[in-house]
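S., here's the first fold you wanted:
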Amino acid sequence: MKKINELIEQIDLDKKILLEDIPNLDLYMDQVIQLFDNKFAKPNSNEKVMTKTMINNYAKAKLLFPIKNKKYTKNHIILISLIYHLKGALSINDIKESLNGLNQRILENNEISIDDIYSSFLHLNELDLEKFKTELQQSGENVSKEIEQIDDESKEYIEKLLLITSFVNMSNLYKNAAEKLVMDMIEKQK
């Protein structure tokens, strides 16, 4: 479906902070904000992607291990990136529960490599992106079949409405699955 291909091209699906984008030296908050704005800001938008308040709230909610001397390490930036990606679907409390084990392992200097975990996240992101494009195409084809018999000026509107509802439905299904995994993590910790 041509419209789905146009949609895929118009939404910036490959925006992410790569490991090589994160400096190996500690950053002040303004530099962290600038890093996120440079990667995720929408063109011609004054909307901030990341703010001081957001980062302070993440720290207060203990989504991040403690910051020292007002500087953010590479590990902090990786955690902030994970939070950024999770916050669109999960509550702050669910994000805290999800990242709690990782924060604890970092604090305990465990043999855990947050770089390796983040690399796996980025790799899975790429795989999910390809799957997403295929699923979008399939949804477009399914909607086209549903509206074949409609032959009036509202066809385009109905097509877009059904695509929106289909996309939101899939989003909700994935969100529910993620929330179930978070609940399983909480139960296991008890």
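And the second, which I think is the more interesting of the pair:
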Amino acid sequence: MAELETKAGSADLIGPDASLLIVEDDAPFLKRLARALEGRGFRVEAAESVAEGIAKAKANPPKYAVVDLRLADGSGLDVIETIRTKRDDSRMIVLTGYGNIATAVTAVKLGAVDYLAKPADADEVFAALTRRGDEKIDPPENPMSADRVRWEHIQRVYEMCERNVSETARRLNMHRRTLQRILAKRAPK
């Protein structure tokens, strides 16, 4: 009975069109997230690559989308852009293990409504997808560390240089190989 009430409450938040496209190349995570969001009332379609995500978005533009930023065959931002051109009322969020402010800004400019760092659970994803525009997000309990602030700055300059490693290294007065090692690592906490 509680499960039916939860689904009914979810349906109110989701609306009549519950189509959801999840684009994620981590197959176990994709399956868990798809199952969890189906349990909350979404009609889920899954894709494991940018090409597959774009094809599914063109064939049946979803009302909701959860897109990984870095996929084996390219950037999830291409999927976000495709969905936005096909359907301007969609609510999309970007998931990534390589979160930074510059790509978050780009994702929002392309039409994403939120940007979540991995590991994000189904509750966080559901809340981000169903949050209304006037709802405020609570500020983080812990501010960014000095290492994270440095990493964010490097990422911002890297994006400004259109992902040109040599130009970014020159602007940051840093050796190119040092910069490449920093860019290859995950974001510090």
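Why I say that: The chain has a mean pLDDT of 82. The longest strand covers residues 91-96.

Talk tomorrow,
H.
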